[in-house]
Design goal:
The chain has about 200 residues and is an alpha+beta fold. The protein is built from five helices and eight strands; from the N terminus they run ααββββαααββββ.
Length: about 200
Amino acid sequence: MNKKIGMITGAAILAGVVGAGVYHTEASSSKEGELQIVAGENITIEEATKKLEEAYQGTVKEIELDKERNKFYYEAEIIVDKQEYDVVMDAESGEVVYEEIDDDYKNNENRDNDDRNLEAAGQQETNAENSSGENKSNLIAQEKAVEIAKQEFDGEVVQIELDFDDGRYVYELELVNGHQEADIDIHGETGDILSLEIDYEDD
């Protein structure tokens, strides 16, 4: 893949901020009302996922919306040919402003561990298919998972991740609306709500 590391002006500055641990503002900061979403100003998390997967020809492993100095960014981990890219996207313009290959994932045993985990997950999946007829081809689309979550909680999706846990695929979503935050787990094949937790924060 012909991608340049630190390809965009200002990426080095942003990288320094990321490295200093100042950039990353957890979505949980919304508990203090810090992460406020203004409708219509940012591309959605679904659109960001699609743009990144098309640009990198890979799979978004995890993506979340973060805020730095009153500006929103999507932070994503993307798997491309057994390499992991850490990417930061401007949530308003959709422009990638920072990218880095995760050398730990590439060179250390993290990738081997992930490969073993994927192999174990694959075996669990095979067992699940044999017992219940479920398989990854039956996964509901990410957009459908978002739609189901929004039916339960009227908020903006700031994080979504697909996990294989206890022999099943689960979409884990986090949504915020003002000072309210919801964590929702959705069965990846059936679309059933597995868990719903809403936090209400006082001003």
